[in-house]
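Protein 1 of 2
SEQ + STRUCT:
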Amino acid sequence: MKKSEAGRSTGRPSPTRQRIIAAALQLFNERGPDHVTTAEIARAVNINEGNLYYHFRTKEALVLALFALFETDALAVVAKIDEEDEVAASTYAGFLRLWFSLVWNYRFLFRDLVGLLSSAPALVEPVRGISAAMRFAVDDIVSRMERAGLAEIPETERAALLTNLWIVSTYWAAYLNLQEGVTEFGPQQLDWGLRQVSSLFRPYFSPLATSELEAMLEVDP
């Protein structure tokens, strides 16, 4: 059977591979990829390093696999909008919380992005690709909100708002780490990020959308 560059079979993912990914995600989130060795990951899965290298020849391959998993989950969050009531304000408040929860679940990708792009150059194009796709999706979601009468954004302000929305909703963890020196991330930081994005939207929301937004912010992450 043909093997991929990660050193694993290209068929259905094995349980061991899935356990490696889960352990790496937890350790990377806790301490960052630079501070986690493949030996530690192997110990967490209760396998030897040779077995780990069979599935992932390098730590970069493991990071790329985790990013691919994030990408799949991100697109699933966007697709969920199509299943919800397009005119309900709760649909969009729920999307915002889902997105932030996703960023939280893969927080090492955003908190440590600068270092990751340096140590894993193959990550550059995938990051650009998902960034473009998600920005397009956010533009579409904002347009739906406008059609539903939940928001009204002047055309002259739209491009800047969408850009700032993407920057804040995606890189809030990196900001807290680099600018504020926050190294331990918890529910308080997640709530902080939600409030920053909410402040961008608030001037353009209808009273109903504002009410839903406030209700969402009162819910514990």
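Protein 2 of 2
SEQ + STRUCT:
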Amino acid sequence: MAGEIPDLQAQERTGTGKGAARQARRAGMVPGIVFGGDVDPLPINIPFNVLLKRLKKGRFKSTLFNLQVEGQDDVRVICRDVQRDVVKDLPTHVDFMRLRRTTKINLFIPVEFINLEDCPAIRKGGVMTVVRNEVEMVVTAGDIPDHLTVDMGKVENIGDTVTISDVELPEGSKLVISDRDFVICNVSAPSALKSSGDDEEEAEVEATEAAEGEEA
């Protein structure tokens, strides 16, 4: 199921060009542009602190936003580019693309692991290693899933691997990588146990070699 689409407030920017952009930055705003959807591009300003907070949360470019600009109809948008200061690595300009509810887009959908405490393989002493914590998918803009769910309660044995074919995909979505059954996570033996096993193997080899030497 799709989660609630977060709101993103902005102001319409009067004037374009470098002068207007510099003025916006001096006022604590980040200039941007909204394009696409058979409508003229809309210059906007976003409060610097609001944008920086969103960027720090992660997955900014894979999040669908409900853009609210005073005097304009709300519109669903997705970020297509964030320009940054080459020295400070802070946002200086942002580009958004308008989307219809039926638009198909590529997004990275996070993976959620459940029932870790009931995972038989982990209860036997196994250690889970996450290979992918998000998966790129083609989804509909109006029905973006919150996450993909991996039920670790079904992973029985140490050495077992969970691949994408073991994960139920949301209705109406599909994988970008569809030609191989890639790994999501695995449960392996603890490193200490592996080392112990290696030591035992080495001891067996040494004992065999010593016995062969005595026979010779």
